[in-house]
Amino acid sequence: RGHGLQGRRQRGGSGGGGSTANGSKGPGVSATKIRIGVGLPDLGAVAALGPNYDDGDVKAQMDAVLKMWHEKKLVPINGRDIEFVYRSYDITQPDAQTAACVGWATDDDVFAVITVNNFWSAAECVANRYKIPLIVNDIYMQQTINSAGPYMFSIPYSLDQALRNQAHFMADRGLLTNKTRIGLYYGNGTGGKPAVEGAFQQELDKMGFGKQVVAKVTTDNYSTGGAEDPVAAQQFAAKNVDLAILLVSAINQSNFQNTATTLNYKPTYVASDFLFTTNDTAASSFSASQYDGSLAPTSYRFGEESAGYPTEPLAAACAANYAAHGGPTVTYRARPAEWMALQQGCGVARLLLAALQTM
């Protein structure tokens, strides 16, 4: 979305140097090199939970991509080599993500930034404040995409669109007629409340099902679990909610389900792509007795192998390239989180390369 990878950029708060392909000066570009910021998600203690959570060595994964580009002579491009400038960020700390943004802009002087995943809090810092083209894998509000445009390129669709689609998905499968009491549990931040109370609730209203929402619970911590998780389950049970929409992280949802089990309460759940809940890694901590048989619309392909589909050729090539450059042989079944991080890195890198080749 947008056209930020082409033409001259003028950054707020950052100087520029070098020259673009047409000879004009631009940040992050010299006569021989283009500097690209690469964001590495730091999961912290979460990685210790095992292969369902550990992304592996994301820097080595991205190094393998760059080595392959050189071997296949995809770079240099117009006489300019590509240099990756790495910065890691704590996925749960907005300040850490903003610090990475500022570092790329003011210290590293990069031309563009690509991030593997979980770069929620500083997308606008990169694309809006500093006018640096940004390619991301995360689902953002349409408002965020608009305010960061034309420099932000979000691979998935917007959260607003995902939730509108989810409302129709539920209606098409009869859930909104067979289930009559809806409960919504979501975050207070920009990644949750505006989309749920805007796009999702408004779509339900337009379809004539808005009055079926009988419970709404919000939380300030919708990424790593919070005190409101059991409260939401208790309120849903008390109000006889039979269709639960949990737009919070897998950790929050697991806490909700555990409380629901102790209450002998089991609603129907419908998942979404928000916070990657539709992949096996996120759902691995869910209660089977609570969640088995749940439905979800998705735009991702992460679950295809578990469902018996053959590995997509680009995904297989990405994994093979990593193994060929010193990485382990990663498979989805053995190390799902590492497989997904590897594929996300390859995805943003392919889009970056295609954009640079058209300049």
What's this entry about, in short?
This protein has 13 helices and 9 strands. By secondary structure, the protein is of the alpha/beta class. Residues 6-25 have low confidence and may be disordered.
Question: How is this structure best described in words?
Answer:
- The protein is α/β, with parallel strands linked by helices.
- Helices cover 40% and strands 14% of the residues.
- Strands 2-1-3-4-5 form a 5-stranded parallel sheet, sandwiched between helices.
- Strand 6, helix 7 and strand 7 form a beta-alpha-beta unit.
- The longest helix has 22 residues, at 336-357.
Q: Please, how many helices?
A: 13
The strand order across the widest sheet is 2-1-3-4-5
The radius of gyration over CA amounts to 21 Å
**Termini separation (Å)?**
16 Å
Low-confidence stretches: 6-25
Strand content: 5-15%
Mean pLDDT: 88
Helix content: 25-40%
The largest sheet is:
5 strands, parallel
Shape: globular
| SSE topology string | EHEHEHEHEHHEHEHEHEHHHH
Quickly give the structural class. Answer: alpha/beta
- The counted number of beta strands is 9
